[in-house]
Amino acid sequence: MKRVFSGVQPTGNIHIGNYLGALRQFVELQEENECIYCIVDLHSITVPQDPKELRKHILDVAALYLAIGIDPKKSIVFVQSDVSGHAELSWILTCNSYTGELSRMTQFKDKSKGKESAPTGLFTYPILMAADILLYDTDIVPVGNDQKQHIEICRDIAMRVNNKYKDTFVIPDGRFLKSGARIMSLDDPTSKMSKSAENIHSRISLLDEDSKIKKSIMRATTDSDGEIRFDPENKPGVSNLLSIYSAFSGESIDDIVAKYADCGYGDFKKDLVGITQEAVAPIKQNFNEIRESDELKAILRDGAEKANTIAEKTMKRVKDHFGL
Ligand code: ADP
Ligand code: NA
């Protein structure tokens, strides 16, 4: 059995990019692996958060995990800050990483662009992520394409420690989906769909009303040549909609292109609205039931206990190898 670990930040607006790129794999993987799914609240405070909102968003993500089909009887579901090993291991890894390699992270470069100084947490974010993964002797990390570089630095740090000290860490592999691994923004299809973009029509949240889904898709940026064709470079908007269509329907992009050969963007978009509404409907319904139930907090407590048992073993090994 392989160990799987992944996390989502409790920053609200969990969108179809998060779902199609990462979350939907979580459910599948739990059948044949030992899965650990975390709500990474320590990552979310790299930028200021309102405490009340954060607390709410933590429970929202927990409920969403369960709503998409993560089963707490099969998988461990917990909140990062409930297990102190994450922050503790993060410091030890910080002492085994370099400012040079962190400076090359494109996510940090994007987030700090044009600023003379940036929050240190944004800079060291990949180290905390490495700690999350290595703390559980993880074999597989299912994430979206935007995390490729962070998985790579995690592997580098783990190998560095293994070479310098006794064999300490399992070297993990990223798992990226072929379709949906990078969903782009609906209004600017040259940047990725994100939780924080100001324009709410740039994304479709998993909890959006049907009318909002319709509006966002119908006004999504396309182009003026009117041809439904997959060409991310020259036709990023249409190609992104084709990716979403394919990921939700399971149909190949080629089949979809053939099906809409004689149609305009309007007809294609209308069908995509229906497909998207149908895909998120059961998630929304489950979410509302679970979010209101008393069970949620008990599930997280139980998850934290199980996660902590594994984490403590790893920390004992790490400290032993480091002479701490
Ligand atoms: P965000 O990047 O939206 O703030 P997180 O950092 O919590 O979200 O990421 C949760 C998961 O969703 C990660 O595995 C990430 O790679 C994936 N993800 C985020 N945005 C996208 C996107 N636009 N397309 C595909 N996957 C994405
Ligand atoms: Na991200």
TrEMBL record:
A motif ('KMSKS' region) lies at residues 192-196. CDD domains: TrpRS_core (cd00806). InterPro entries: aa-tRNA-synth_I_CS, aa-tRNA-synth_Ic, Rossmann-like_a/b/a_fold, Trp-tRNA-ligase, Trp-tRNA-ligase_bac-type, Trp-tRNA_synthetase. A motif ('HIGH' region) lies at residues 10-18. It holds the Pfam family tRNA-synt_1b. SUPFAM superfamilies: Nucleotidylyl transferase. It is found in: Cytoplasm. Its EC number is 6.1.1.2. Keywords: Aminoacyl-tRNA synthetase, ATP-binding, Cytoplasm, Ligase, Nucleotide-binding, Protein biosynthesis. HAMAP family: Trp_tRNA_synth_B. Homodimer. PANTHER family: TRYPTOPHAN--TRNA LIGASE, MITOCHONDRIAL. This is Tryptophan--tRNA ligase. It comes from Lentihominibacter faecis. The gene is trpS.
